[in-house]
Amino acid sequence: MRHDEETQLFKERLEKKLSFQEESFLRHVETDVLIPKMVREKSKVLCAEQVADFTKCCQDCGLLMVVKCRKENAALKECLTKQYHDPALFEECKQEYLKEREEYRRTGIPAKKREQKVPTSM
């Protein structure tokens, strides 16, 4: 193998390695805003029972909900806090975010638009 070919091969491997590192690198806004937002949304789903209990209590009590729904509110807060500080859930959301970001970079179509059905022509 010639020196030029070896140099080219080395450059290609280096570029692939750098692109992989770039793909897994998270910016400040991603780690502190976007991924925690996903964690909060998933936490609400995981704590659906407590959310439903608190909502029902608030609807039943009206203006007295501040006093009468303390137990339900405490249970909801506890569940949400537990989920929000769960490292496994954060990692799951991080991987999901990276997958969505990779798909966006590949296609140029945001996740929201990909979920919409494309109209068919008649």
From TrEMBL:
<dbReference type="GO" id="GO:0005739">
    <property type="term" value="C:mitochondrion"/>
</dbReference>
<comment type="similarity">
    <text>Belongs to the CMC family.</text>
</comment>
<protein>
    <recommendedName>
        <fullName>COX assembly mitochondrial protein</fullName>
    </recommendedName>
</protein>
<keyword id="KW-1015">Disulfide bond</keyword>
<dbReference type="Pfam" id="PF08583">
    <property type="entry name" value="Cmc1"/>
</dbReference>
<dbReference type="InterPro" id="IPR013892">
    <property type="entry name" value="Cyt_c_biogenesis_Cmc1-like"/>
</dbReference>
<keyword id="KW-0496">Mitochondrion</keyword>
